[in-house]
Amino acid sequence: MNFNLNEAIEILEQTPKTLESYLANLSQGWMTSSEGEGTWNPVEVIDHLIECEKHNFIPRLQFILEAGEGEAFPPFDRFAHLNQSEERTLGERFSEFQTLRTENIAKLKELVDSDEVLEKTGSHPALGTVKVRELVSTWAVHDLTHISQITRVLAERYRKDVGPWVEFLGVLK
Amino acid sequence: MNFNLNEAIEILEQTPKTLESYLANLSQGWMTSSEGEGTWNPVEVIDHLIECEKHNFIPRLQFILEAGEGEAFPPFDRFAHLNQSEERTLGERFSEFQTLRTENIAKLKELVDSDEVLEKTGSHPALGTVKVRELVSTWAVHDLTHISQITRVLAERYRKDVGPWVEFLGVLK
Fold this sequence. Notes:
Two copies of one chain form a homodimer.
Chain A lengths: L4 H19 L4 H4 L10 H14 L1 H11 L22 H22 L3 H4 L2 E4 L3 E4 H25 L17
Antiparallel strand pairs in A: 1-2
């Protein structure tokens, strides 16, 4: 096991600015690209990350600390962000993600104020018993999963363009 | 085919700053982590990217434009950066990568001054005939491959820590 709260927070802290640096200056062709029908483009991934700041990790942490294993926490709708009708710019999205993430890291530090809290358990509707330390680890790796997804989506766009080099490019495997 | 020179340059431009945002504030545990013996940690990936700025993409572009298919370009040593003895800080590495990348994008724009140049062909020592457009596409996707690799390495460190969530985290698949 490698989990350490401060190190997990290092991952959580960098994500909004890293994604802004990654994507803010890419033109439409990149931002509307996906891996095919039913998959997300980079804008939809950011919307999902914003949705998770609102309804996933910190709400679940609060739920565990209040309910323990007595009640499974409500399932998270992974597709909620696809039904949003409001028009927002990419800049507004990055700004919202950064604001929510900063607030949520502050809440995390407040709620997990001792090592004992990390061992508290809750009940995941599909996975059963989970620990706070697993939830926080998952929050960090969830960021990484979506950085990886965005990277795969961008690379996919040039799959044919790289010609014979395709066999040397791991991201296209 | 999706290649467009300006769009490829958008990818090339963001990489040094994105990696700096991603990694500059991560502690040693993250930066020395790898996927096991013989695989690279994030610092080694940055050293490889620096090495490629010096000896891979722009030198190969220049070689193609000078030699055409008459002569295969010299193979690139993918492991050269592992034999460097100089001690450098992470900050010095990011700074060098940014400087070299900025210079190389300027050279790219100078060398590829028309669509015809994109169709010129050279000879890769292992892959045979390659086009300039494929080389430039590959340069961009090569950045993405290594962003993806770094992301996988970071995530791997928490494989056990995420507990039962491992099955929902694509980057650990």
